[in-house]
Amino acid sequence: MIKSGFECETWNRLDQNCNLKSGWRQNKFCQQACFDIGLGYDGDDCSNSSPSPSPSQSTADVSTIVELIEAQVAKLELSIESMSDEVGQFNELLGTLDVDELCDTQR
């Protein structure tokens, strides 16, 4: 975190990460600081430890972001495909209508 301008011990969002986020659990970022606020990692006893490395934009974090983006893109593609099918069905229905008959009923 020091690389990104923050220190584990004073970062105001630490309680939203630590053992609550998978990327943090995998890398044990801010291990001592997380332990100190009661959000330590499973199996850790940091009662007499030195600080652990601060988080950076790790490959695991990037992979997670990419997976989330790909899932959203897939959902959008399905929505677009569904809308395209509906437009096609609507156009087919319009092609079967007798416009003159429809206009006569409106008068």
Overview of the structural elements:
The protein is rod-shaped, with a radius of gyration of 28 Å. It has helices at 22-27, 31-36, 59-96, 99-106. It is mainly α and 107 residues long.
Task: Present the secondary structure layout.
Elements: H1 22-27, H2 31-36, H3 59-96, H4 99-106
Question: Alpha-carbon distance between the termini?
Answer: 73 Å
Number of helical segments with 4 or more residues: 4
Q: What string gives the helices and strands in order?
A: HHHH
What is the count of β-strands? 0
**Count of discrete structural domains:** 2
Average pLDDT? 79
Specify the helix fraction band. 40-55%
In summary, what is this structure?
By secondary structure, the chain is an all-alpha fold.
Attribute tags:
107 residues; mainly alpha; 2 domains
